[in-house]
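Predict structure. Chain length: 316.
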Amino acid sequence: MNSNSPRVAILSHADISFFELGCAVELFALPRPEFEHWYQTDIVNLDDRPITTTGSIVMHTQHVDDLERYDMLVVPSWPTQPTSIDNHLRQQITLFAAQNKRILSFCSGAFLLAELGLLEGKQATTHWAFEHKFRQRFPQVNYASNVLYVFDDKLGCSAGSAAGLDLGLAVIREDFGYTIANQVAKRLVVSAHRSGGQAQFVDTPMLQVPNQFSQALDWAKANLTKPIHIDTLASKANMSRRTFDRKFRSSMNITPQEWLIKQRTELAKGLLESEEINIEQLAQKAGFNNAVSMRHHFKRIVGVSPKQYRTQFNSG
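Prediction complete.
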């Protein structure tokens, strides 16, 4: 390993989220002998205590007295409720930031950075479910809503869970270039590049009990390429149109028409990733009236145009 390789510290603590920690480890700590230069990464703690995480898994990580030797710090998660911060941890991270070193937060990790005052006047984001709580507690932060990740100078924040992979890949591209970043993405079996401004996707909630309503939605998903009228969906659910609309909004927090558009957009994404067809053909296969309509809704929902999405997915 080259002595000039970036040194990375992944911060572990008593409230660590196992999934976000795993994402950080996969991105920066996994040995990659196929690359001549790669990160030298430690999973560290600053309080020298065993850690019990998700599923009662007990971990022992490397205790360090300070973060001086590291070039980048990753904070995979942090409690979203007000929590006392150990003075030593506070001093070390504040000093790290003052030295203008890069700090990344995954998901709720942004709460720690905000609590330390590092995000004041800066852009930040976190999981969509924590947005209201974050805005209330930290009004001095320029919160970026419904994005995958944001950078503000040396501070990067990602949205929930797997969006940390997108932030990490963006950092890898910056440090080692597109070719290596794309190889890492392929190893992770994720898209090589989702831009930070791309929307956070909230999957349609699963209904608890299969019934005529859920069966109507299953029918719609199987027939997205055909014209689908909301009255037809209501009929298949054995409901009046008014009852169906009310049931849909209470169950899905969205209108039936917008739900159909989002389902067709997801179908278009899959086609863009797997088929080399022109946009007009693709729009038809995804169930849109025409390419103009598809481009409009795709850009509105995904945050990038269909052409940009295809280029990003196929790059490398």
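Summary: The chain has two domains: 7-188, 212-314.
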